[in-house]
Amino acid sequence: MPPSSPESPATAEAPVTALTVSVKTLCAFAAKAGDLDLRFVPVPSAQEGQGGHRLVQNRRGPAYESEVILAAAFDRLTVRGRADGYDPHRRRVEEIKTFRGDFAAIKSNHRALHWAQAKTYAWMLCEREQLQRLGVALVYLDLDSEEETVLEETCTRDELRTHFETLCGRFLAWAAQEAKHRTDIDHALAALAFPHGEFRPGQRDLAEAVYRAAASDRCLLAQAPTGIGKTVATLFPLLKARPAQKLDKVFFLTAKTSGRGVALDALRTLDRDRAPLRVLELAAREKACEHPGRACNGDACPLARGFYDRLPAARGEAVQAGWLDRIELRRIALQHEVCPYYLAQELVRWSDVIVGDYNYYFDGSAFLFALTKEEDWRVALLVDEAHNLLDRARGMYSAELASAAIDGVTEKAPVPIRKALRNLDREWRLLQREQVAAYEARDEIPEPFARALLDAVAVMAEHFTAHPDEPLGPLQQCFFDVLRFARLVDSFARHSVFECTQGPEGARMLVIRNLVPAPFLAGRFDACASATCFSGTLAPFSFYRDTLGLPDDTATLDVDSPFRSEQLTVRVAMDVSTRFRDRPRSLATLVDIVAEQFAQRPGNYLAFFSSFDYLADASAAFADRHPDVPTWAQSRGMREADRDAFLARFAPGGQGIGFAVLGGAFGEGIDLPGDRLVGAFVASLGLPQHNEPNEVMRERMDALFGDGYEYTYVYPGLQKVVQAAGRVIRTETDAGVLYLLDDRFARQEIRALLPAWWRVQPMFASEVGAAPSGGPPDLAQPGR
């Protein structure tokens, strides 16, 4: 049913039913107590943990049952889970845990939680097998030595029943509350009307495509112009689809903090009295931390001390509040003296819409993805400004090692670590012994170096396991760098390249640079019920489908622009070249074009350049030739206050030119409607530099997809251009001018990648200010 229909049938009235809950969630809710304790102890990766489970399971006899699916009920509560193993001959259920280092370092409250899980599975097996008693074992496997430490109890049927019913009793009131909330939300969403009454042009097309994707469990790539209200047009249909599609969560994922704010504003427009959603905002740990510099344990931080003892009251107030943006969440957390950051993580289980950064779902250690898999949730993703996901994901699956960081800690490190790091350095030097050039790219990582790397990880992990209270310092940071690098060595393949660089004074750097994150992200898209990736610039769709790992049956939508070509005068400077070799010769002509347009129509303009160096040259040349025109410029590493001051110069009725870098903070995500911005100049195609790393990428892209030059240079460059140009026309009443200052913009293959509604017209420097054929929009009036 189209999402615009407020009369969609509501779910039939029903009594409050049981909430199905996992064993892990039940025990985490009802059996956790004491401090939050995140003292660093190296833990196995998910892959290593799974390997450890298989190792233990394979050691058992042929009758041994692995990954036993179990369920049991108490009153209206159904509990489901998967026991690691059951030995029917010994009548023993096993809960397997993997670790490294000292067994004694496993915290007592963690063991208590493990016992709670094991005994819950034991009760389920007693029920299934009609047993009167059962052995319950915790099997701890040291991954380094592959030795098992087994803790075992024999429990009677009555003891296990009492344990199970006690946990369920603690959870049952909460479960009834959650079941009622689910029913109420589904009824409200089925009757939810579009909050603005009528759709803007283009909004309905987008909303219906999102609804269809959710209804068919498909992914969607949607390109829709800025200004139509993409955020509400994607959230509304997905929430409408939730009851029928039995969605558990909606994850709204953004590239920037500003994107979270836009999403929260859109959610506020949905009538919360009729659809009382629980909305949770996830903020970065460094921004949410109340005691920076203190360790996350009860000995160091008062908000970690007794965290799980005070969590139930904080959790109860939070779900009643429902609206849990960063400010409200912090208020509740501090009122109950618990950590805001970790309270937010606990509340993910009980929230309907979670708004957070890409990394919470797409990163290698993303906890939203881990919870989705663990709880078997049906989640729908909304990936905002999805053109940013490619570069962000490349960073998530890249790592670097600097020789200086290792050299700086080796001599002061404990003897075992010193020996391992020296061995690593020796293999590193052998690896680069015959390297002559400053940069070299390889398709393979030498096995001796990989072994030395893993040895260093094991020795350092053992040290930090034995010294969990050691403060964070260079040695621990070195370990994190080595560990991250080692994990990517394990997954190294054609999607990445191994780069070796040599600098002055013997400086060396190794980088695993991801080029195509698709193999890592494909599983993330497979794990969700549906995903909509939307942006103002997703052309061509094949480029993003290939590089992001979206399924082959991903639907696509290119929403027509609501803007008219008459609103934007687009002119290509045919006698200007911004190629690197031509920049000195064309600079004077370029800045004169900018100045002459300003003289024709004084107002606020943005001028975009491909680099800070080019920006500085242009800004200086402009100031020298046209000193009477107000200008201001973006600088490297601008702080938030400086960025705000830059944007504040674009006041209504103002006059001046802001110089900015293409693809930077002012190239997208800023809104300057009306006469706050009347024009833009783009002095570059935005193509990445032709250098050795990018040429390596071009060759790899060509081998994988056959369009190496386009995938490496053209598509990423033009995406930045279109984003920057999109700052000019923000509403249907805006009008402005766009200058594309390079003759290459007139090429047919480049023009095909620009928005179809642009009417691009060639011009020459001598024509600046002359009306293009067809007549310009009336720029004498404010655009709003």
UniProtKB/TrEMBL annotation:
Domain Helicase ATP-binding: 189-457
A GO MF label: helicase activity
A Pfam family that the UniProt record links to this protein: Helicase_C_2
Keyword Nucleus set for record: no
The keyword 4Fe-4S belongs to this UniProt entry's keyword annotation: yes
Coiled coil (residue ranges): none
Keywords of the record: 4Fe-4S, ATP-binding, DNA damage, DNA repair, DNA-binding, Helicase, Hydrolase, Iron, Iron-sulfur, Isomerase, Metal-binding, Nucleotide-binding
Gene3D superfamilies found in the cross-reference section: 1.10.275.30, 3.90.320.10, P-loop containing nucleotide triphosphate hydrolases (3.40.50.300)
UniProt similarity note: Belongs to the helicase family. DinG subfamily.
Official protein name in the record: Helicase C-terminal domain-containing protein
Source species: Variovorax ureilyticus
Taxonomy of the source species: Bacteria, Pseudomonadati, Pseudomonadota, Betaproteobacteria, Burkholderiales
